[in-house]
Amino acid sequence: MAQLSDYLAPAELQKISNLQVLARLVVEGFISGLHRSPHKGLSVEFAQHRQYVQGDEIRRLDWKVFAKTDRLYVREYEEETNLRCTLLLDLSGSMAYGGEKAVAKHQYALRLAAALAYLLLQQRDSVGLVTFDTAIRRYIPPRSSTRHLRVLLEELGTAEPGGETDLARVLRDLVPRLHRRGLIVLLSDCFGDVKALTSALAQFRSARHEVLVFHILDRDEVDFPFREWTRFESIEQAEAFRMIDPAQFREAYLANLKRFQEELVAGCRKHRVDLVPMVTDQPYAEALSQYLTRRLSRPK
């Protein structure tokens, strides 16, 4: 049975445990609080205290508890569980690649997904999961109970890369299934037609979702460090290519990669999609902590 420790080492968990994922746009929920909501006028029921972290509103501090304990605590309410996040996990064949010095991209994505699910459920938001390759494999609707983490981890434990994918088509098929507005998080190498991909992401934005893309690449894909004659194979189509001299292709490859990255950045910026480049040789907890810290500091 899957455990949180299968994905998050204690040191990694410590790096992210005090961070909070805040929705920067209006999301559908029950009451304004930690996340802004379009619904007003509902009752607010106290749930528990939580230790104060930098960025919390001072007016929510419980001064009576401070007088007794000399520690700062924030009052939390049931209706603050108003963020709905859906994690979209790319399990296409290209995600299976892993260089000699790093984990495979899909393993990196699994750990990111586990970390995000843990964080969101810790702050009592709801989290769902979609896995896909050539088509949608599994859709687990968002839930906010602590028991739901085990459901997500069990699914992640069986998630292995499959065949090729038309990423844009899969995303377009998902749009009508996600009815309530929330946070959509895509974990993928984003390989494919960039214009079609960003157009599909724009459909989520038109449906009033906030969209976050963790663009995951291996260091080999970024630097193309190959120097000796090498045989390259297609992971998605199982086609073996002849031995080649990388020196003949390195310049063209890096130029194509740069063009691909620039198109992806421009497309995401155009449609107000948050794009986060990640390389698998960087510890994922460190990369996630850096991004979420920057996100917390942005003006809302």
Which properties best describe this structure?
300 residues; alpha/beta; Rossmann fold; 2 domains; six-stranded mixed beta sheet; two-stranded antiparallel ribbon; 9 helices
Describe this protein's structure.
This protein folds into two domains: 4-21 and 83-297, Rossmann fold (3-Layer(aba) Sandwich), CATH 3.40.50.410; 28-80, no CATH class. 34% of the residues lie in helices and 21% in strands. It contains nine helices and ten strands. The chain has helices at 10-16, 63-69, 105-122, 148-157, 167-174, 194-206, 219-223, 250-270, 284-297; strands at 46-51, 73-77, 84-90, 126-132, 136-143, 183-188, 210-217, 230-234, 239-244, 274-279. Helix 1 runs parallel beside helix 9, helix 3 packs antiparallel against helix 4 (148-157) and helix 6 (194-206) runs parallel beside helix 8 (250-270). It starts with 9 loop residues before the first helix and ends with a helix. Mean pLDDT is 79; it is low at 18-44.
